[in-house]
Specification:
This protein is of the alpha/beta class. The protein has helices at residues 20-41, 85-93, 111-124, and strands spanning 63-67, 73-75, 78-80, 101-105, 129-131. Helix 2 (85-93) crosses helix 3 (111-124). The longest helix is centred in the first third of the chain and has 22 residues, at 20-41.
């Protein structure tokens, strides 16, 4: 296929940049950020809902770590002290720190106590943590 180029200059080049679409986009982004910024900084008390996430497959031998109301810790089915938590986890996992630890806590356990337990897990080298909860419908 061939084409022929004539010396005919019917099309004239314009050397001006049309900035109107650029200004429109900038104004839309400005409005979005003006609306979204206050929403990101507001501190609102929240009553957390029941999880409706799809169930993930359970490993063949899961390692459960239970935090009871009295702050006692149970690894598997054996009660351990907080000081011996790392050694008990190493014994239960054969020092496999890549194994996921399933953390269960009573409903009445304070959020700070659960955070302290997760910090103890991190200090022991266990970073893969899964929180166990009840399945339910959203209210």
């Amino acid at each position: 296929m061939a084409s022929r180029l004539d010396d005919n200059d019917d099309l004239v080049e314009t050397h001006e940049i049309n900035v109107t679409p650029f200004i429109d986009v900038i104004l839309v982004l400005l409005i979005i950020f003006m609306v979204a910024a206050p929403l990101a900084t507001v501190d609102v008390p929240v009553d957390l809902p029941v999880s409706t996430a799809t169930r993930t497959p359970r490993p063949a031998t899961p390692l459960f770590l239970t935090l009871k109301e009295d702050r006692s810790v149970i690894v598997g089915e054996r009660a351990v002290s907080r000081a011996d938590l790392g050694a008990a986890l190493d014994a239960a996992t054969s020092r496999d720190r890549e194994q996921r630890v399933f953390v269960r806590a009573a409903r009445t356990v304070d959020y700070g106590q659960l955070t302290d337990l997760m910090n103890d897990l991190r200090k022991a080298g266990y970073l893969k943590i899964a929180l166990v909860g009840l399945e339910g419908d959203a209210k």
